[in-house]
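Internal tracking record. Fields below are filled automatically when a chain is submitted to the structure queue. Please do not edit lines marked as system-generated. If the sequence contains nonstandard residues, flag them in the REMARKS field before resubmitting.
Queue: standard
Priority: normal
Entity type: single polypeptide chain
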Amino acid sequence: MPRPKRDTAAGIFHVYTHCVWVSPALFRDTTDRMSFLRRLAATTARVEWRCIAYCLMQTHYHLIVAVEDGVLPIAMQRLNYSYAVEYNQRYGLRGHVQFARYGSRRIEDDDDLLGCFHYVATNPVEAGLCRRPCDWPWSSYPAAVGLTDPPSFVDPRPVLGCFSDQLEYASSALRDFVEKS
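SYSTEM-GENERATED OUTPUT FOLLOWS
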């Protein structure tokens, strides 16, 4: 039975992937995470997508991205392939680094975007990796709520715009939404 066709139309998507079973983690250390973030930045610069948010866990990652028609599979292949090559070289492995094809889900509206952002931002807390979402250093959440400088390749305006056009108010409202709900 063939795999179902991917949704490749323009839109905003929650994208996620997990490590292959033979590896203990997709991101074993800071070097792995920094390598992935460099590749995410490079992919964002080269393809027609906007990275709204990211969160790197140990065994998987989450992205929220806005894409043009046909861009999501091209960008994900570039991102995952380049990371897999470096990861395999570093650890003396071969083959796939991700367990399966990446997963993606179209985000339908602002409420869906906020719910997805909340899920991504609180994932490290739910996994017991930190007490508060703003404590996890491998997420764009602290920058989205104004606690750190944002990475140049992340644009949280779509999620902030759900609250206000005024950045300070929107950042504060987003933090309240994520940390108090």
